[in-house]
Amino acid sequence: METQNHKLHIAFFPFMAQGHVIPAIHLTKLFVSRGLKATIITTPADAPFIRKKIENSGTQINIFTIKVPAVEVGLPENCENFHSATSPEMQAKFFKATTLLGPQLELFLKQRKPNCLVADMFFPWATDVASKLGIPTLIFHGISYFALCATLCVHLYKPHNQVSSDSEPFVIPNLPDKIELNRKKIPDFVKDGVENEFKKMYEESMEALKSSYGVLVNSFYELEHSYADHYRNVLGLKAWHIGPLWLCNEVEDQKLSTDEHECMKWLDRKKPNSVVYVCFGSLANFGDAQLLEIAIGLEASGHHFIWVVNKQNIIEENWLPEGFEERIEGKGMIIRGWAPQVKILSHEAVGGFVTHCGWNSTLEAVCAGVPMVTWPLFAEQFYNEKLITQVLGIGVDVGAQEWIRVDGEIVKSENIEKAVRKAMVGEKAEEMRSRARGYAEMARRAIEEGGSSYTDLNSLIEELRSRAITTETS
């Protein structure tokens, strides 16, 4: 039974960055596939990208644009997403600008009257805006149950304040497993303006958890069941697992993707599990010295590889060892710019993935059954590394030691070589590959009718529907 006069209407409000927008699009499509009405709130800069992703999918999704008050905080007028903020100072100002979006969001909510708002974790203030109008807010963190638990426990118990140095390990209290970190691997919030703005947002997001209707988690129960139970039953927060989101959209996305990247033909000529895929996401910004170490380490590993290097890194080609591309011809491929990551990971030739441990990339590797070489950089990525290597046992770490937003700590080529070899060949590699494939099978079952994520989403929709009917009739 629907609400009295209309379909249940859900509004989605993702942060203006690719790693947030893409899962939000998948999330929106998932709700629409269950017969709900949806609107995505975004900026004019991101609207064309979103429109392209949904226009041929057969789904009815509305787009509502808002304007980031960039000039008001000292940014260029056209700075409408995080990727256009090209320095730490600009990024700090961009975070500040998003906190000024409240009046535009309130106007939208008054005009469109959605039954629920799904707000990005970077918009903790949105919960208060919606609450004033009697609209429940679901927070979409876009991260794992494990990272949610670890983040909250670090926030509550502050174990990093009990050690005497940045390198001294501490145990995160009140978790199902003994998880050790040090202060270098969590944000210190003091390096520059970005961290100061991030600290404010982070503190407010922890408070918003208490006043929100609950949290949507892009994960599946079988992957991290002890942390799903811990988050809901021990920490006492409402949450629903509805992922892996990209897997829910996989068939449709494959149909819409007509271009075949040259790397796929290259992979077709390789033996199963013989290629390591190297990619650090859209926000990583390695300098020449680190790129050189990666090149040396990959060549020394002896394994065939595909290495994705962001265009922003390409200033000159002097970061490559002399004669490198001639020596790796046929053995290695460097992709400068975008690569079809899901297709690459799913190819039978790919046997390992060197990753920054962003949650989207982690889930894609899990669903492809590919072991990982973990190289976290910032955000919750050091937490994800612990989940991958310690809890799930499907990865080996490269030895990254510091939470870092810009170029700094250098991971040496010998560490890279050693980690790649360990993940690609040998008894441990085969054990990890077997476990990873097991999780891949579980992921597919989770989104099928009757699966854990399918059932949890049904439960949420029925709860929202009952609430909407009660509100309309009261």
Structure description:
Helix content is 45%, strand content 14%. It starts with 8 loop residues before the first strand and ends with a helix. Helix 3 runs parallel beside helix 7, helix 6 crosses helix 16 (381-391) and helix 15 packs across helix 18. The chain has 474 residues and is α/β, with parallel strands linked by helices. The relative contact order is 0.12. The strands form three sheets. Strands 3-2-1-4-5-8-9 form a seven-stranded parallel beta sheet, sandwiched between helices. It has two domains: 9-251 and 446-473, Rossmann fold; 258-442, Rossmann fold.
| Terminal residue distance | 17 Å
CATH architecture of the largest domain: 3-Layer(aba) Sandwich
Global geometry: globular
**Helix content class:** 40-55%
Total number of β-strand segments? 15
What structural class is derived from the secondary structure elements?
Answer: alpha/beta
Radius of gyration (Å): 22 Å
Q: Provide the CATH superfamily of the largest domain.
A: Glycogen Phosphorylase B
Task: Classify the beta-strand content into a percent band.
Answer: 5-15%
Instruction: Indicate the mean pLDDT.
Output: 90
Annotated CATH topology of the largest domain: Rossmann fold
Q: What is the domain total for the residues?
A: 2
How many DSSP H or I helices? 19
Strand arrangement in the largest pleated sheet: 3-2-1-4-5-8-9
The largest pleated sheet is described as:
7 strands, parallel
Which regions have little confidence, pLDDT < 50, spanning 5+ residues?
A: 1-5, 189-193
CATH class category label of the largest domain: Alpha Beta
